[in-house]
Amino acid sequence: MASVELTRRELVAAFLGASVASACQRQQAPRAPVPGAIVDRAVDTGHKLRGGPLPRAETFEPVDVLVVGAGAAGLSAAWRLAGAGVKDVRVVELEGEA
Hints:
By secondary structure, the chain is mainly alpha-helical. The chain has a domain at 63-98. Helices cover 38% and strands 8% of the residues. The protein is built from 3 helices and 2 strands. It has helices spanning 8-23, 43-51, 72-83, and strands at 65-68, 89-92. Strands 1-2 form a two-stranded parallel ribbon. It is elongated and about 85 Å long. The termini are far apart. The model has no long low-confidence stretch (mean pLDDT 82).
């Protein structure tokens, strides 16, 4: 049988690699149910928009970028655009407030 010579670095790497690999097992983490409900104050408005033709705009204002939705993603997008130098960014929201 031929002998195999390993350097100290190779031996340590083999031991560490084996221990890390044994720790990488797929296990399901216990999941507790998350309490909550969907609260939507704009249900009536949303259904009016979905159910028929859209009302004609009273005014028209050109903008460089229009962000639809003032939630976390919309406000983050507007903030990043403004930070990137886009001057005319407008955010619209279905509900009266965000």
